[in-house]
Specification:
The chain is mostly helical. The chain has one domain. Helices cover 81% and strands 0% of the residues. The protein is built from ten helices and no strands.
């Protein structure tokens, strides 16, 4: 899984760059022109572009018409957003009791403990929901004609296989990105903008975000590797290679 993910990361470096630059531009836009909840959907669209191409690289022929892929990114993003909403409902329910504690925290140990509990709750929901519904994403890329039912059935058959690999791979990777970005933001001062009033860049913060988003890109590709292989295993016992 790790070896395949790193090879795919290298092969998709241009898409990784688009995702990282796009997310940083989105952070700057949010600082200068707050766009509210629109930030979430645009972010999903940015990372879905990378995720779709990772799935396509694993599941579709190498000599395919890649221009046709771009026409399907929005549909893929909407499905990802829908899975994310399903993931968010239990996550919010689990996290909500700790928000008040975070706001009332007065020591670093309390802050770190609260964020740790929130992170574990989010990770648990991610593994459960994506193990069950993640099959929809590779199904949309490779097997749209069969519809929702077969995709969900494939996901259920591969639940424990998928969950174990999501924990061993993407969860660890996303946790590292989470620690880098959150820790760096706290260390640098969370109220410091990437660009100040006269558009002078905060170079250390840029470096922290670039590193964090590169790790997040690897995690996104790793999710595609796990879900694509789960999809193939449930269908015919194949394993995707790059």
């Amino acid at each position: 899984m790790y070896q395949t993910s790193f090879r795919l990361f290298k092969a998709l470096l241009s898409y990784v760059a688009i995702a990282v630059v796009g997310e940083i531009l989105l952070v700057i836009a949010q600082e200068k022109f707050p766009i509210g909840s629109g930030h979430i959907f645009v972010s999903v669209l940015i990372w879905s572009y990378l995720a779709f191409n990772a799935h396509a690289e694993l599941l579709l022929p190498k000599n395919r018409d890649k221009t046709a892929d771009n026409m399907r990114i929005l549909g893929f993003a909407l499905r990802t957003f829908g899975i994310g909403v399903i993931f968010a409902i239990p996550a919010v329910i689990l996290v909500f009791p700790f928000i008040g504690r975070l706001l009332d925290a007065v020591t670093w140990s309390q802050v770190l403990a609260t964020w740790g509990i929130i992170g574990l709750a989010l990770a648990a929901c991610f593994v459960i929901v994506f193990s069950l519904f993640g099959s929809l994403l590779p199904a949309f890329v490779a097997d749209r004609a069969r519809g929702l039912g077969p995709a969900l059935a494939r996901g259920w058959r591969q639940f424990f296989w998928t969950a174990s690999r999501l924990i061993a791979g993407p969860v660890v990777t996303f946790a590292l990105a989470y620690v880098v970005i959150l820790g760096g933001s706290i260390y640098m001062d969370p109220h410091t903008d990437l660009l100040n009033a006269i558009y002078i860049p905060n170079v250390p913060m840029f470096a922290i975000l670039i590193l964090g988003y590169l790790i997040q890109a690897l995690g996104t590709i790793m999710v595609a590797v796990v879900l694509s292989n789960a999809f193939l295993r449930a269908g015919s016992g194949e394993v995707a290679q790059t």
